[in-house]
């Protein structure tokens, strides 16, 4: 997809978030990034708990682009790390899209990558991404309260 197409995709997706009253921000790719990042805070509980979802569109190969969706559910896992790590096995078996994981023994996340044809329509891609983000948010919301509870447990309290 052209740079203009990527900009159109990000602008359209950001407008969808704004219509819902969600806070989002765009960051241009730095030297270690695979592409520009659109970040959005998505509510996952009635109490106002939020997850941070990062959306990155990047050219991947001559015949394939990549839409990368990465959501941080818990930024700093508490003393229940080992129990949460074990629980992920069961959760991933039932997860409809992508997978949950733990990054560097401290961050609980959900990740989903979508390969795309390089000629994908930016508006259609924004619609698809918006639907996927809603599905991922629902999957995250279904595990979030239990994940927080497990994360905060002292070892051996399960």
Number of helical segments?
A: 3
**What is the H-and-E element order?**
HEEEEHEEH
User: What fraction strand?
Assistant: 25-35%
How would the global form be characterised? elongated
Radius of gyration: 16 Å
Name a few traits of the molecule.
158 residues, alpha+beta, 6-stranded antiparallel β-sheet
Protein described:
- The structure is a single chain.
- The protein has 158 residues and is of the alpha+beta class.
- The chain has a single domain (3-149), classed as 2-Layer Sandwich (Yope Regulator, Chain: A).
- The protein is 39% helix and 31% strand.
- The protein has three helices and six strands; from the N terminus they run αββββαββα.
- It has a six-stranded antiparallel β-sheet.
- The radius of gyration is 16 Å and the shape is elongated.
- It starts with a helix and ends in a 6-residue tail after the last helix.
- The mean pLDDT is 88.
How would you summarize the topology of this molecule?
Elements: H1 3-19, E1 24-27, E2 37-43, E3 50-61, E4 64-74, H2 81-94, E5 99-103, E6 107-116, H3 122-152
Antiparallel strand pairs: 1-2, 2-3, 3-4, 4-6, 5-6
Quick summary:
Helix content is 39%, strand content 31%.
């Amino acid at each position: 997809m052209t740079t203009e197409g990527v900009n159109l995709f990000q602008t359209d997706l950001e407008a969808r978030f704004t219509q819902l009253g969600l806070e989002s921000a765009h960051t241009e790719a730095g030297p270690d990034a695979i592409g520009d990042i659109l970040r959005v805070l998505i509510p996952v509980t009635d109490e106002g708990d939020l997850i941070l979802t990062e959306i990155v569109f990047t050219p991947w190969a001559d015949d394939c682009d990549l839409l990368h969706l990465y959501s941080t559910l818990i930024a700093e896992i508490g003393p229940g790390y080992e129990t949460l790590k074990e629980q992920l096995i069961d959760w991933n078996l039932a997860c409809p899209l992508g997978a949950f994981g733990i990054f560097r023994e401290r961050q609980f996340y959900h990740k989903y990558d979508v390969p795309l044809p390089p000629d994908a329509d930016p508006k259609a891609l924004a619609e698809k991404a918006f639907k996927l983000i809603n599905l991922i948010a629902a999957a995250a919301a279904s595990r979030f309260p239990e994940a927080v509870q497990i994360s905060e447990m002292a070892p051996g309290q399960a």
